[in-house]
Amino acid sequence: MTKEKILKAAINQYSIHNYHGATMKKIADEVNIKPASIYFFYKNKEELFLAAFKWILESHFNYIRNIVDQVSNQSILTIYQTIIQKTIAYHRERQNETNAYISLVNSPPVGIKPFLHDHMQRFDTWMEQTLIGKMQTEYPDISKEKAMRLTKQFLIIMDGLFWEINLYEKEELDKQMEYAISMMACLLREELK
Predict the structure, then answer these.
(1) What is the spatial distance between Cα 22 and Cα 15, in angstroms, rounded to a whole number?
(2) Distance (Å, rounded) from C-alpha 115 to C-alpha 173?
(3) How far apart are CA 93 and CA 128, in angstroms?
(4) Measured between alpha carbons, how far is 106 from 117 in angstroms, rounded to an integer?
């Protein structure tokens, strides 16, 4: 038995039953252990779910950082495109984690809400600083205000795509990604005039 198996079971149960319905017994049954065994690692359900959500969010954050590092020498439009495509692929491949995250954002348990808020601020700040820096490197004459506006628009588009993951089948979501990339190209051209 490992902590990671318990965390994955907690995420799976949360994605199915939400916080109150994801009992320690259901989590233990999925891992094929006794509920009391979970308490060896976590003192209560809140601590278990906080660890599970930290694991989800940090995994995602590290994945996005790696994506940006891989394409950091590309054009800003290629960086936008790559982030969009790889983020959607990431969430499609990790449906339980994505469903748990959606549920978490929609109705966070009280003890987890401050952590979620802090994480989202840290992620957004990093993303903004990174993309603004990349844009200013590629377009040294662009004002910080324009770079910030483009970055905020990109983040809004990304948020919209994320919330569509469970609404559309693959083909339709692929079209939505194409539209998002096209919108970013138009916005970039407009700001560079």
Answers:
(1) 9
(2) 30
(3) 26
(4) 12
Render the burial of 79-117: b for 16+ CB within 10 Å, e for the rest.
Answer: bbbbbbbbbbebbeebebbbbbbebbeeebbeebeeebe
DSSP 8-state secondary structure symbol assigned to residue 108: -
pTM for this predicted structure: 0.85
Distance (Å, whole) CA 44 – CA 9: 15
Q: What is the sign of the dihedral through the CA atoms of 42, 8, 121 and 103?
A: negative
**Helix (H) / strand (E) containing 37:** helix 35-38
Give the pLDDT confidence score for residue 113 in this predicted structure: 80
* Tens-digit pLDDT profile for residues 4-17: 899 999 999 988 88
pLDDT value at position 134? 94
Distance CA 190, CA 72 (A): 23
CB 176 within 8 A of CB 123: no
Nearest to 79 by CA among 154, 142, 147: 154
